[in-house]
Structures are given as C-alpha cells and as structure tokens.
Amino acid sequence: MRLFDTHAHYYDDAFDADRDQVLSALPSKGVERVVCPGCDLASSRQSLELAEQYPFLYFAAGLHPENLEGASLGDLEEVKKMAAHPKCAAIGEIGLDYYWVKTPEARAGSRDFFDAQLSLAEELDLPAIVHDRDAHRDTVDIVRAHPRARGVFHCCALSAEDARVVVNLGWHVSFTGNVTFKNARRALEVIAAVPLERIMVETDAPYMAPEPFRGKRCDSGYVYRVAETIAQVKGIPAEAAAEATFQNGLRFFGIP
C-alpha cells in the first residue's frame, strides 16, 4: 500500500523530541510522500528546511487565518520567495476561520489575506491548501472569484452540496482521521458524493489521530486509516483507495 499524506505539520513542537525518528520511519510504513504546509512565515521556513532534509517531503508556504496578528500583506513577498523553491508544492495553509476569528474587523482582514494569497497562487500557477472552519459561504465565494486558482479544501468540513460545487470548479477535497470518528456522518456523505479522483488523504499531524489511536499524537503512519475509511464508503479495496489518493496527490501537487 502506497500512501501520500498531503497535510502534516512536522515543524510542530509536538515532534521536537523525536522528529527525525518519526520522519525517517515513514517510508517503511508505506508513506512515500508528505506535504508539510506552513501557517506563518516562520513555520513556512521550517517546512522548507524539512523538505530539504527528507527526499519524500515537500512543503507549502502561506499565512493561516489564525496566524495573521502582526502580519501584513507585504509579507506575501516572502511567501513568494519561498514558493520559488523547487520543493514548494503549494500556497498554504490559507483560508478563513470564523470559529477562532471573531470580530468583523479581523474577519474582513482574513478575507483580504485569503483573496491575496489565492491571487498569488494563480500568479505562480501553484495549487492552494485551504482551511475553512465555520466560514463556508465566504470561503466558496472567494474561491469562485479566482477562476484560475486550483486547490484543496483540507480536513473537509463542507456539506455534500458545497463539496459538489467546489469539485465542479475543479477543486479537490481532503480528509483526516476524523472520518473514522463515530460522529463523522457529514464527512462520509461528502466522500460518497464526490468522485474518487478528487479525493486526497491527510493526517493534519500532530492533530486528528484516527480511531483506534484517537487522543494520541498523530503522524503520517496513521494515514492508512483514512484510506481504509474511504475504501469502505466507496466499496473498493483499501489498496485501491490508497493508490488512487496517492496518484491524486502526485497530480494535484505536480510531484514526481
């Protein structure tokens, strides 16, 4: 079984004690590719450095909606510089989060950043990794305003109807270990509703460890559980789901 964890934050301090041990073990677990997205300038640089150390690891650079305090649109020049690196696979993690970002002013600012970073992704012809929490309408509206952009709704929390909309726009959806949780009905409906060729798998490590590992620190070695769940919903073998999502990730990110 070949696996592609399309979203894992290996710069996170949860991995400070054993980062190299965890990463070095992934190929033996069938994890042949990983994308590590940044959330601000510092973590984007850390992701770049990790991509230079591990042949199977790629990175994304961007400003997360929860990490915009003290940031300016001028910081996107630094994102653009990092995106020129040969192992930069995407602009991300970008998007909107109305769960944590509460005030009208802060939400308006995050929309400006999202809009500007999608424009950068269009300019550089790179895909975007999008975070959308409790902001579906505004997120989809901004995506619609960028017809040349392509991207993925990571840790997809869309309804089946909204997921069909973004897939019809040429976008992808990606799922984490939360699809294995008992209350995962909505995500399973999305998996059933969209074509397999538009689905990718991820861990969002160190978060969202799947069952039966829920509550533990997550790493890419658990991403097989997401592929297994997709296989169950689609009625196909787990190996077929893993291979399909592996190939989807390679095509989406333009990775050899």
Describe the structure.
- Strand 3, helix 3 (76-83) and strand 4 form a beta-alpha-beta unit.
- Helix 4 packs parallel to helix 5 (136-144), helix 6 runs parallel beside helix 7 and helix 8 (224-234) packs across helix 9 (238-253).
- This protein has one domain (3-253): Metal-dependent hydrolases (TIM Barrel), CATH 3.20.20.
- It has helices at 19-25, 41-53, 76-83, 104-124, 136-144, 160-168, 185-193, 224-234, 238-253, and strands spanning 3-5, 31-37, 57-61, 88-97, 128-133, 151-153, 172-175, 199-201.
- It is 40% helix and 16% strand.
- With 256 residues, it is α/β, with parallel strands linked by helices.
- It has an eight-stranded parallel β-sheet with strand order 1-2-3-4-5-6-7-8.
In a nutshell, what does this entry contain?
This protein is an alpha/beta fold.
Question: Which descriptors apply to this entry?
Answer:
single chain; 256 residues; eight-stranded parallel sheet; 9 helices; 40% helix
What is the strand arrangement across the widest sheet? 1-2-3-4-5-6-7-8
Q: Give the number of DSSP strands.
A: 8
Q: How many domain units?
A: 1
SS element count, helices:
9
End-to-end Cα distance: 18 Å
Range of helix content = 40-55%
CATH class: Alpha Beta
Mean pLDDT value: 97
What can be said about the biggest beta sheet?
8 strands, parallel
In CATH terms, the superfamily is Metal-dependent hydrolases
The structural class is alpha/beta
Q: Label the CATH architecture.
A: Alpha-Beta Barrel
Work out the strand percent: 15-25%
Low-confidence stretches: none
Q: Which fold name fills CATH's third level, the topology?
A: TIM Barrel
Radius of gyration: 17 Å
